[in-house]
Amino acid sequence: MELKENIDKVDPNKVPKRQLYTGCEIPAIGIGTFGSDKYGAEEISKAVYGAVCGGYRLIDCASVYQNEKEIGAVLKQLFEDQVVKREELFITGKVWNDKHGDGEVIESCRQSLADLGLDYFDLYLVHWPFPNYHAPGCDGDSRNPDSRPFFTEEYMAVWRQCETLVEEGLVRHIGMSNMTIPKLERVLPLCRIQPAAIEMELHPGFQQPELFAYVREHNIVPIGYCPLGSPSRPERDRTADDVADMEIPEIVEAAEAHHVHPAIICLKWAVQNGQIPIPFSVKPQQYMNNLRCVTEDPLTDEEMEKIRRADKNCRLVKGQVFLWPGAHSWEDLWDLDGNIKGWK
Predict the structure, then answer these.
(1) 65 classed as catalytic
(2) What are phi and psi of 97, to 5 degrees?
């Protein structure tokens, strides 16, 4: 691919690292591969090729993104071109909601590894904490009549399969995604192998300080999705009350002071705040600016504090397509009053 020689590269050694509880290091920024229903698998895989050539070493994948075969072809090319060795990459996979049954997590992981042409994942996540399937590209009013609320026993049956993946050497670390403190309080004491990381929505307009602190206190690394406020997110995840992170005055002010785009400020804030952002872009200039910005010109303590105080508590990925029969609204998914919602 022509991108190999034409990108202004970033030295991967200059990219900050986080340490998982095992002692393994993970880059403090990665490239996402969810195309928000707007970009095809070929475009996304081409971006992965260019990003790795440019210095990215963390790639966030998922079976539901429907592009693992194409990314696998690109990884094979990267290895053949001697751009990078497998052990220099940190690759994340996720089990989707329709594969929570007995043996299905292991089957799904094996299929993803085959599609990606890998022997192991560095990190494998439970994508959502319930088996509530929705078709890719569905609208926000879609509902699956078989959807269920969260049950500790069902979740732990999924987690036990993830633990087996570690024991069989198919996965180095396991983790969770889209969890809440009440759910974590139920499951963490039951884990034989603790989660190394948790993916959660994190951006200046939705900082989740309580959950963020809880995760850090339990020696779990927070990985932040939608770090730019996901301006390209699907229509099903948009409402009239959503806040645009890159228009928050404190973000705009910092961008003007540093002479950069507001997106760069969002990413600098994320890395300096202690999470791992995984921004998505198919445009080389954008994804390289995203990587480079965390290696230079940090935000000041004052700017960090202003952004902390600018939190709008505005969740963008509300997850309403996962609601079960009898649930009232998307808020039932997130245990806002400290209680896990069940059947009505």
Answers:
(1) yes
(2) -65, -25
Burial class (CB in 10 A: 0-12, 13-18, 19+), 82: exposed
Q: Which two tokens stand for residue 155?
A: 């979740």
* Whole-angstrom distance, CA of residue 299 vs CA of residue 306: 11
Instruction: Judge contact between 256 and 231, C-beta under 8 A.
Output: no
Parse the chain into domains and list their residue ranges: 3-333
300-344 pLDDT per residue, tens: 999 999 999 999 999 999 999 999 999 999 999 999 999 999 997
pLDDT in tens, 45-93: 999 999 999 999 999 999 999 999 999 999 999 999 999 999 999 999 9
Residue 167's CB: how many other CB atoms inside 10 A? 11
Say yes or no: domain 3-333 is CATH 3.40.50.620. no
Catalytic residue among 49, 56, 65, 124: 65
Q: What angle do CA 267, 268, 270 make, to 5 degrees?
A: 60
